[in-house]
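Appendix B, example 12.
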Amino acid sequence: MIAGDAVEKRYGRKRALLPVSFDVPEDGFLLVTGPNGSGKTTLLRLLAGLAVPTKGMLTVDSERGELGFVGHEPLLYSDLTALENLELFGRLYRVPERRERSGMLLERFGLWEARAERVSAFSRGMTQRLALCRALLHEPSLLVLDEPYTALDAQGAELLDHELEALTGTRTIVLSTHDPERVAPLATQRLVLA
């Protein structure tokens, strides 16, 4: 599904990602760890197609529409409600029965009661939950999650734990985190960046 051979990223003279190689099979789970500044976010942005490697070969055997991405920015429209955001993304991804799927995700992530509120009124944790709903809405075959536990309270983190457990083995997942032991039992591979 994903293969990297000496993948490196530079911005001018600054090296954002040291050469790294990896191979993630279909439905595999790659856990990416390392200290701040090691290139975790850069690597995940490369996998999501938001940047291109400076050197090396990177192959992601997935169409853009089959990708679910959660990064440091939630990629939501703050002037729209939670439900309007999901309906918009549902139309963009041509999700069949998008209203039902949106409602199911909002319910699952504890946002049903806030479905008619504008995202601008959400707490950071609620916004992160909605970003996870957005990423899962179209049932992507590849999930790229950069620090998905950021700003989640204990209940939100537990909801994400259950979701990842249910998806493991049915989707290809690449996840970076500063708390690797939380998801280590689910991971089929681990990549430690220096």
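The beta strands are 2-11, 14-24, 29-33, 55-60, 67-70, 142-146, 172-176, 189-192. Helices lie at 40-47, 82-92, 98-108, 124-136, 154-167, 180-183.
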